[in-house]
């Protein structure tokens, strides 16, 4: 069996299966985002599917070629839409988003142009347009993920399986794949992709499948995303910029003390899945009010506020000789962390030591 053909089948099969799983929303979370991601992965598969099914029509004016190339041109659009719905689930598409359709129409004109005007410079212009379109949306998606990773720290006390880090990895590989695949399709006269490049894509596809199917619901029920975004914006604004007061300063002090008492007496931070909605319910505040209190009175986001208490708890346990018989993972769980990775990362960031180093330092002294 031809090795390159076998690898191509693995890529197409993986993408089509992943597309089916997302289109049917097997994870039962992020429904609209998963639907669009399923469309994206199906479209992405056509970069290899055309070689398997319609190789004789490649680089011709045949309708099959035109449809496939237009379908491939739409890949970045379905990708950015899925990212938008993952990061902003309340999004409503409107006529103001119609500008997205301009580039595909222009590319369709390229595809349907008569052979008589398809000079070398004309073909080069089409390639650059294809690449520029792909890179523009990929960079946009990457920026949205970076912003999302800041926003979720105003909502959650953990980031595992909700920070969409796997999409950021896609943006890295997608820029490379957009350039490589487009270059091969437009410059190599339909020769199949190099076996080593296809091996790279096999790894990308199956890693994407692994992480995307572990994706959890990002925004908890009862959460108004606009409240979170506005609260997060308070942190990002310059210190001298005017801020809209959600509560008066006199009430802010009272709410701050109430929150401090709750954290000390009830220790809600020991719940590894604590989020803004749950803590707001315990304080009797709205999510908007609680976010404002944490951001303004403590000058930090929800993630850092909660994990500061967890690190303090972990330090207490690590200093206690009675807990020396327990490994670091147990200490992390007892302190409210939900994984060894998050425990080590957060503890190191806040103390400059890993938990193991902190324990050894205590034992040595």
From TrEMBL:
<keyword id="KW-0805">Transcription regulation</keyword>
<dbReference type="InterPro" id="IPR018062">
    <property type="entry name" value="HTH_AraC-typ_CS"/>
</dbReference>
<feature type="transmembrane region" description="Helical">
    <location>
        <begin position="93"/>
        <end position="112"/>
    </location>
</feature>
<keyword id="KW-0238">DNA-binding</keyword>
<keyword id="KW-0812">Transmembrane</keyword>
<dbReference type="GO" id="GO:0003700">
    <property type="term" value="F:DNA-binding transcription factor activity"/>
</dbReference>
<feature type="transmembrane region" description="Helical">
    <location>
        <begin position="193"/>
        <end position="213"/>
    </location>
</feature>
<feature type="domain" description="HTH araC/xylS-type">
    <location>
        <begin position="257"/>
        <end position="361"/>
    </location>
</feature>
<feature type="transmembrane region" description="Helical">
    <location>
        <begin position="61"/>
        <end position="81"/>
    </location>
</feature>
<feature type="transmembrane region" description="Helical">
    <location>
        <begin position="166"/>
        <end position="187"/>
    </location>
</feature>
<keyword id="KW-1133">Transmembrane helix</keyword>
<dbReference type="Pfam" id="PF12833">
    <property type="entry name" value="HTH_18"/>
</dbReference>
<feature type="transmembrane region" description="Helical">
    <location>
        <begin position="6"/>
        <end position="23"/>
    </location>
</feature>
<dbReference type="GO" id="GO:0043565">
    <property type="term" value="F:sequence-specific DNA binding"/>
</dbReference>
<dbReference type="InterPro" id="IPR018060">
    <property type="entry name" value="HTH_AraC"/>
</dbReference>
<keyword id="KW-0472">Membrane</keyword>
<dbReference type="InterPro" id="IPR009057">
    <property type="entry name" value="Homeodomain-like_sf"/>
</dbReference>
<protein>
    <submittedName>
        <fullName>AraC-type DNA-binding protein</fullName>
    </submittedName>
</protein>
<feature type="transmembrane region" description="Helical">
    <location>
        <begin position="124"/>
        <end position="145"/>
    </location>
</feature>
<keyword id="KW-0804">Transcription</keyword>
<feature type="transmembrane region" description="Helical">
    <location>
        <begin position="35"/>
        <end position="55"/>
    </location>
</feature>
């Amino acid at each position: 069996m031809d090795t390159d053909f076998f690898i191509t089948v693995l890529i197409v099969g993986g993408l089509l299966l992943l597309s089916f799983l997302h289109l049917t929303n097997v994870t039962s979370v992020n429904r609209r985002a998963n639907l669009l991601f399923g469309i994206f992965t199906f479209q992405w598969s056509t970069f290899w599917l055309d070689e398997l099914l319609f190789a004789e029509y490649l680089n011709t004016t045949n309708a099959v070629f035109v449809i496939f190339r237009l379908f491939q041109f739409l890949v970045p659009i379905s990708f950015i839409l899925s990212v938008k719905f993952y990061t902003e689930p309340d999004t409503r598409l409107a006529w103001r988003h119609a500008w997205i359709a301009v580039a595909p129409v222009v590319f369709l004109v390229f595809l349907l142009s008569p052979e008589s005007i398809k000079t070398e410079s004309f073909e080069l212009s089409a390639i650059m347009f294809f690449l520029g379109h792909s890179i523009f949306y990929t960079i946009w998606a990457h920026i949205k993920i970076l912003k999302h990773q800041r926003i979720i720290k105003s909502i959650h006390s953990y980031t595992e399986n909700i920070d969409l880090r796997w999409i950021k990895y896609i943006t890295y590989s997608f820029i490379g794949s957009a350039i490589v695949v487009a270059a091969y399709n437009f410059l190599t006269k339909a020769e199949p992709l190099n076996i080593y490049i296809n091996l790279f894509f096999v790894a990308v596809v199956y890693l994407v499948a692994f992480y995307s199917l572990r994706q959890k619901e990002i925004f908890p029920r009862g959460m108004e995303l606009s409240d979170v975004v506005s609260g997060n914006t308070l942190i990002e604004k310059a210190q001298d910029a005017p801020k809209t007061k959600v509560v008066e300063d006199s009430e802010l002090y009272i709410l701050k003390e109430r929150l401090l008492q709750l954290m000390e007496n009830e220790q809600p931070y020991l719940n590894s899945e604590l989020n803004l909605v749950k803590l707001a319910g315990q304080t009797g505040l709205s999510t908007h009010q609680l976010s404002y209190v944490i951001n303004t009175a403590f000058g930090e986001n929800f993630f850092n506020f909660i994990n500061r208490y967890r690190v303090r708890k972990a330090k207490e346990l690590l200093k206690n000789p009675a807990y020396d018989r327990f490994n670091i993972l147990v200490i992390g769980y007892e302190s409210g962390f939900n994984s060894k990775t998050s425990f080590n990362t957060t503890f190191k960031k806040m103390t400059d030591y890993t938990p193991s180093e902190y324990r050894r330092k205590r034992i040595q002294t």
